[in-house]
Write a structure and sequence with these properties.
Layout lengths: L8 H12 L1 H12 L21 E5 L7 H10 L3 E3 L8 E4 L5 H9 L2 E3 L1 H8 L4
Parallel strand pairs: 1-2, 1-3, 3-4
């Protein structure tokens, strides 16, 4: 588990402990039986992760994707998605009504793209 990005020994220990408890596994089985499911993502190799090592920040309202979908899609391409802008941020995705994160990105000279740019990026059109 510790080979997964951002999971260290403490988080791994808690995840294992969670799944060792039978009542947690029972709840998951009942949720699956009720039709709840989650998308399984195939892991890409490092060479297939064109955004590896890059940090993105999402701000404002996205209309084509939820923030979680955008985050998951960026992560699938190797990007790290952060909640705050810094000089180490590679790119800020600014949706409608973007606020202080957009202003900070502009102040720091961080690249800013809109949702159309994000969609192009996710579709390999960069």
């Amino acid at each position: 588990m510790q080979k997964i990005t951002d999971i260290g020994p403490i988080a791994a220990k808690h995840i294992v402990a969670f799944f060792q408890q039978s009542h947690h596994r029972d709840i998951i089985q009942r949720l699956q039986a009720a039709g709840v499911h989650w998308v399984e993502n195939e892991s890409l190799t490092v060479s297939e992760q064109p955004l590896a090592g890059q940090s993105f920040v999402l701000t404002g309202t996205l209309t084509r994707l939820t923030r979680d979908e955008a985050k998951t899609s960026l992560q699938a391409l190797g990007a790290k998605v952060s909640g705050c802008v810094s000089k180490k941020t590679h790119c800020v995705v600014a949706g409608e009504k973007a606020g202080s994160k957009l202003e900070k990105a502009q102040t720091l000279g961080v690249k800013v793209i809109d949702e159309a740019g994000l969609m192009a990026l996710l579709n390999g059109e960069w």
